[in-house]
Amino acid sequence: MGADFDLDTAIRKIKGFPRPEILFYDVTGILINPTAFRFCIDSIARLTSGIEVDAVAAIEARGFVFAAPIAERRGVPLILVRKKGKLPGKTLSRRFQLEYGEDEIQVHVEDVKPGSRILVIDDLIATGGTLRAAVDLLREAGGVVTDLCCIIGLPFLSYEELFRDVRVQTLITYNH
Ligand code: AMP
Fold first, then answer.
1. In this structure, which topology does domain 51-173 adopt according to CATH?
2. Residues 6+ apart with CB under 8 A from 61
3. What pLDDT was estimated at residue 98?
4. Torsion angle (degrees, nearest 10) of CA 88, 94, 98, 100
5. How far is the CA of 124 from the centre of ligand 1 (A)?
6. Could you give the angle at the alpha carbon of 157 between the alpha carbons of 156 and 160, nearest 5°?
């Protein structure tokens, strides 16, 4: 099932977006390429097949796209972790530092069942700040989080240091 697809060819690299010093890895090139998209979903499914999950959590916004097919395949609930102010029900929140400034993510309290094992999926892990906040938020809400899976990892930003307690799997990594 496309196990030998070269994912790098589907990821656009854009220098200087959104700031001059950033090399932006754009996943829209994956989404417009059905072979690439299927390869990603099949690969995440394979990498996480041995993990027992009661729910999949998706990080807004690009994480939604990759997490939803996995939740559907596994037959488990999909929990949306959203930016502040988007979820209408009772929420728990977590603020976290960005490179410049702060952000806040939220989850519906009732979506996280106490003791449920949650697999967290996002598009890209850079500093890991967003995913660290998501793991902490889901745990505060009562979930058990042992595993993260992302399409792209940027290990030169040292995200591994933030995740001594969680396994992080990626489909492809870049070192600059
Ligand atoms: P971080 O909290 O630093 O791990 O990054 C948060 C989010 O910012 C990631 O999930 C990406 O969606 C986005 N992001 C950060 N750096 C990049 C990059 N170099 N290329 C594309 N997206 C990025």
1. Rossmann fold (3.40.50)
2. none
3. 86
4. 80
5. 6
6. 90
- Which residue type occupies 165? D
Cα-based distances in Å from 123 to 44, 66, 77, 173: 11, 7, 19, 12
- Other beta carbons within 10 Å of 134: 26
How many Cα atoms are found within 13 Å in the side-chain-facing hemisphere of 39? 21
User: Is the pLDDT score of 20 beyond 60?
Assistant: yes
- Total-model pTM: 0.97
Is the Cβ atom of 22 under 6 angstroms away from ligand 1? yes
Q: What average pLDDT does the segment 6-13 reach?
A: 98
Domain definitions of the chain by residue range? 51-173
**For residues 101 and 114, what is the distance between their CA atoms, to the nearest angstrom?**
32
CB-ligand 1 contact for 124 (6 Å cutoff): yes
**Beta-strand (E) ranges in 49-139?**
55-59, 78-83, 91-97, 102-108, 117-125
What is the 8-class DSSP label of residue 99? S
What are 91-118's pLDDT values in tens digits? Answer: 999 999 987 789 999 999 999 999 999 9
Instruction: Establish whether residue 130 lines the binding site of ligand 1, counting it when its CB lies within 6 angstroms of any ligand atom.
Output: yes
